[in-house]
Amino acid sequence: MARMARRPKTKDPHTIFSEQMTRLPSRVKKFLVRKPERSAGYAGTWEFFIGRYGEAFQLLADAALRGSSTGISPPLFFLCRHSMELSIKWAIVEYAQSADEEPAIAGHGLMQLWRELLRQLAKAGFHGPDQWTDYCGKLVQHIHEIDPDGERFRYPMNRAGVSFGYTEGDLRDLAVAQWHIGVFCDAVGEMLQSLGRQDPAV
User: φ, ψ for residue 136 (rounded to 5)?
Assistant: First the structure.
């Protein structure tokens, strides 16, 4: 019976770093490669970015919760908030494009973006708000009140040098909020794709 060839053991990054510190390489190995835009494919879509940021947050949140840590660290909050922002912006883009509009997605204010999404939904003929839309809006408002411009958990202080201070929060509740907002935006996007734009004026 032929022996299976053993795969070479992959070194972890810390081991490689330690080895390099004993003898620094003469040149940097290029580990990032910029590809032509046309080759991006799925990796250049809103769905890809939403999925990867959401997945990164969920993996880290799950690991923290398994370790009995329920506090919110700045990187976790940033990943979560950014995945929410991407989800809302994607839904706006879907509706605006179907109406041949320029999507209004400038800035990082969650409430501003949420209001634009609701405007797009109403313009498409999906009138509300229903219970879930209302609840998701309250979640967005709560997060917006804590971090209105996406800066609070990226830096320790604002541009004027004033400290943001410490924000305490429950990681489990944040993770649930991320599911609500992400799934809601995905649902309204799929609703548009399935039904087409409903023009109330027609």
Answer: -60, -40
